[in-house]
Amino acid sequence: MPSFYHFGVEIEAIVEPHNKGQPVRESIQNGAQLRLWYGKLAAALRNRKGTGGERLKATAEPDITEYRKQKDRHLQWWITWDGSLVYPQWPRHPGVPLEAVSPKLQTNKKWEDEIDAFWSAMRAVFHAPRRSSRCGSHVHVSPNRGYFNLKELQAIAFAVVWYDDEVQQILHRCRRDSDYCRRNRAHSQELRDKDMSASATLINNVSDKASLVRIIQGWDKEDRRTLWNFHNVTPKPDSGKSSTGSLEFRGGPFVILATEEFPLPLKNSYRRTDISKFWDRLRAAAASESLKQYLPARYKTMNDSSGPNIPDDDNDPDGMDDHIDPANTVYTAQSAGNASLFG
Fold this sequence. Notes:
The chain is built from twelve helices and eight strands. It is an alpha+beta fold. Strands 1, 2, 3, 4, 5, 6, 7 and 8 form an eight-stranded mixed beta sheet that branches. Helix 1 crosses helix 3 (112-125) and helix 4 (150-162) packs across helix 9. It starts with a strand and ends with a helix.
């Protein structure tokens, strides 16, 4: 088992700047305006200290193509643009759309200071983020050695299939079966018609990482929109490109739980459990990385099933729908998301 994990967080938000005479009535997409507000957030980050008391590093880059060219982008915060927030089929929605990408963090260090500093910087520049179903968070994770071995990936892949329904129950309802959070099992041409025994056999017989990626989601660009994205665990065949070695998730948990519960070779059958016991085991596994305290005691708190549904912008033409308090809602949810990934 790895001695610790690396992870990075991508946080999507639609925000309204402070000190504006009038609310922003349309989506800011002009490059100069984006650079202005992204730059203000990056400057606020540089004025704060994170893990180890070191001053944060941050860069603003509204051109997503330029951002992706940066080979050292995992060393600092990046404030950039994400097309999913302004997708053409959706109405124009007011505010500044942005994606904040964290540097590579470590579970054995005080990563919470880094996330706290980010939300402090956000509050200094913007009002609380809008409650929008278009915004989500992604987490990339890898073991301390920098990559998952094949057996670990096989265990995680099977856990993705086995716990498909349980994961849906702990997601907020606006993320369930979202176009950007497609279920791997239903999306996979290899797995969608197979029962658990056949799925276990198929995953058991995989001989390399590229074949596993093809099975669990597929290699096309469109296949990246699954709840678990394995595309970065190994280079795409014949692409000539390198890979980061990380797994990306948009809501699913349990890297540690998966490797504990499903050692290779996989069996043809396992005992089912109810959602509450699944959640308890998830929290217990998260304790090994000192993350249990960031997961609520009840899964219904995690999925916010007792709270209001998150509205979409087309039901709020004046752009003044609910805002959320990062100190109480967004940070708590993000911390829980990070913790549930490792559980």
